Amino acid sequence: xxxSLASIAxxxxxxxxxxxxxxxxxxxxxxxxxxxxxxxxxxSVIATGYTFGFTVSCVVTPIFVRRVGHxxxxxxxITLLTVSILLCSLVVEWWAWMIFRGLAGFxxxxxxxxxxxxxxxxVTNENRGALFSVYMVTCLVGSIGxxxxxxxxxxxxxxxxxxxxxxxxLALFPVALSTAQSPTPIAEARFDLKRxxxxxxxxxxxxxxxxxxxxxxxxxxxVYSQTIEMTTTQGATxxxxxxxxxxxxxxxxxxxxxxxxxxxxxxxxxxxxxxACLAMAAFDAQNATAIYVAGFFVGTVLxxxxxxxxxxxxxxxxxDEYVTLSSAxxxxxxxxxVTGPVMAGSLMQWFGPNALxxxxxxxxxxxxxxxxxxxxxxxxxxxxxxxxxxxxxxxQGTDGASPLNDPDR
Length: 409
Hints:
Blueprint: H1 2-7, H2 9-35, H3 40-68, H4 70-90, H5 94-122, H6 128-147, H7 159-176, H8 193-199, H9 201-227, H10 232-259, H11 262-281, H12 288-302, H13 304-315, H14 322-351, H15 354-377
Helix pairs in contact: 2-5, 2-6, 2-7, 2-9, 3-4, 3-5, 3-9, 3-14, 4-5, 4-7, 6-10, 8-9, 9-10, 9-13, 9-14, 9-15, 10-11, 10-12, 11-12, 11-13, 11-15, 13-14, 14-15
Keywords: Membrane, Transmembrane, Transmembrane helix
InterPro entries: MFS (IPR011701), MFS_dom (IPR020846), MFS_sugar_transport-like (IPR005828), MFS_trans_sf (IPR036259), MFS_YcaD-like (IPR047200)
Pfam families: MFS_1 (PF07690), Sugar_tr (PF00083)
């Protein structure tokens, strides 16, 4: 076990630093946007740049890797991340930030793909759970740690932007100087939306809704915390509570779904999400602890739904369809992350910050309701289920059943 951990030590150090910069960037930019006087709708439009770049990278990055290799592409992507945050400090215009955020989304998605590809080469059936747990904890600690850097500085000045760029730059060194052998090239994404719908309609629509859920909160959660007049430290704690909830719940929810009809678990997650959102909306910044607790419970179901969609689709797929269906889910998830923030941002502009929470509650209700309807249309037909695999929390669009993995697992 120790030798397995040693084999991924440099990779995890790069991941920790990258996620610290990611957490800092993801919380700092919405606060700065509010301070610039930009509306929640404009901020949501900026967020679509990030999610669009993220989705495109999931398709394009494997092509670059096949041409020049993992290390060179990783270096280029980390450089692009560094450039994107520095450009945000130089050109403070919303239309420019949408472009810069697109660059960041492209870079971070590509880096995720590379890291997971590298990690999958190091795991076996015996150590898979342990090593992916280390990976998930590393992502969680890095992201939360980066968020807590924000209260230590001034988002209206250049200092935090420079610190973020420095952290991203440092993330390049462990992988660049590692003597470990590079993994085999990433498989190019092939997707077939019609086939996904035929195999699993709930995975088709559930992927759109799960993208809307996590993309909307990831893009506008910081805006929500500031518009209800939380301090930057309180806002960082709220974002951390969501991530912690998702980290702790993924495996228990997944194991339960391995034992019963996964759609029953989807219904339960949706109903629980509605209840947690309504509880969260009942409090304000004067009841910060209550909001943290409610946010934790929202997070416990907000992040695992993507993995449930992948698992259900793979339950009904032929072995040679895993990559194609997972790629289709990834594309639909990306579409949800693009459209969700714009819709929620518009509602927040008209009805105030709690509109974000009610938007999440509505998405949870649709997810639960559609799963219930599908049960009435088709009984559970998965005779031999695939094993549920948890997703590293900060990720949007990749998971253990993504195109990085061996399709014949």
